[in-house]
Amino acid sequence: MLPGGQIVVNFLIISNRADFFSEVHQLCRKTSAANLVEHMSCEVWMRSDRSRAELADQLIVDPYSIVLKHPGQISENAFAAAGTVCQNSGTVEAWNFLTRGELLLWLKEVSPMIDKSSITEEIIAQSSHMRLAHLRMPMCCPLIPKLRERLMRGLSDYHIVEGSRENQFCMALEEALNNAFYHGCLEINSALKECEPDQFGALAAKRELLSPWCERTVQVTELVSAFGLWLTIRDEGKGFNVQAAFDRCNDPELLLASGRGLMLMRAFVDELFYNDAGNEVTLVLYADGQDRELPLGTVSSPGTERRLVVA
């Protein structure tokens, strides 16, 4: 653990092949900048008392090297052998023979989350009556709930809605964020989630680490006031044919998962806008209560003391 409490995972890569070390080293560092990576040749490993394993948390080995004594157990598709070092013995009790894709998933499981993978927010303007903010999020799908919770705060901060309307808007927002990350930035088709949900998750985890997908971001502009909430969500994907997707919503025989998501969003917000490219959506939710239509400076009507009325 580094100063400040940041967790560090130490990887030891054992291989004689420079290309193998280079690729695995790159994957380790892409997974988390907090990963520390060292290298050891197969011959040095075999000659040593292997005490250096006690300094590592995880070992990654070229599966066809002389280090592994049972080559017959190795799958034809194995890209690497990986194992966790036992803290008591300093040895690896069991090796996992992994494809390249499986290695990526394994690295995500054992690597620490770091502060770099977080939401950045810029408050452009804020008062007791309104807030204009710009949020930017890296390609990190596990942070979607955190972004959703932040954006939902606007409803309570300015007393926009509550109860069932709040719950329904939360579902619409969740759908919009999932679309931006999974279908927009990662370019994963909704049909895969319908047919092979496990493959959908595995492909998402893999693309989060690979270029160009890992370099993309999702940006949100929030405008919230006593009159309502406007959220514009933009991804860096290629977009989609918005009109064709809405046409499928009107034909039950053509309705896919993506169409159902659009129907949900359209039903649970007051207004929904897409740009021409299909990579930017604006969700609008107007405030409850009769005061939302009143002009600035109007006094609050009886029974609406909890509503924030611009004065």
Question: What gross morphology would you assign?
Answer: elongated
Q: How many strands in all?
A: 11
Q: N-to-C SSE series?
A: EHEHEEEHEEHHHHEEHHEE
Q: Give the CA-CA distance, first to last residue.
A: 52 Å
Structural class of the secondary elements? alpha+beta
- Count of alpha/pi helices: 9
| Domain tally | 2
CATH topology of the largest domain: Heat Shock Protein 90
CATH class categorisation of the largest domain: Alpha Beta
For CATH, the homologous superfamily of the largest domain is named as Histidine kinase-like ATPase, C-terminal domain
What Rg, in angstroms, do the CA atoms define? 25 Å
Strand order of the largest sheet: 6-7-8-9-11-10
Q: Detail the poorly predicted runs.
A: 1-6, 295-311
Largest sheet features: 6 strands, antiparallel
Helix content: 25-40%
Give the overall pLDDT as a whole number: 80
**What is the CATH architecture descriptor of the largest domain?**
2-Layer Sandwich
Beta-strand fraction estimate: 15-25%
Question: What keyword list fits this structure?
Answer:
311 residues; alpha+beta; Rossmann fold; 2 domains; 6-stranded antiparallel sheet; 9 helices; elongated; disordered N terminus; disordered C terminus
If you had to describe this structure to a student in words, what would you say it looks like?
With 311 residues, the chain is α+β, with helices and mostly antiparallel strands. It folds into two domains: 9-110, Rossmann fold (3-Layer(aba) Sandwich), CATH 3.40.50; 120-293, Heat Shock Protein 90 (2-Layer Sandwich). The chain contains nine helices and eleven strands. α3 packs across α7 (197-207), α5 (164-185) runs antiparallel to α9 (257-268) and α8 crosses α9 (257-268). It starts with 8 loop residues before the first strand and ends in a 25-residue tail after the last strand. Mean pLDDT is 80; it is low at 1-6 and 295-311.
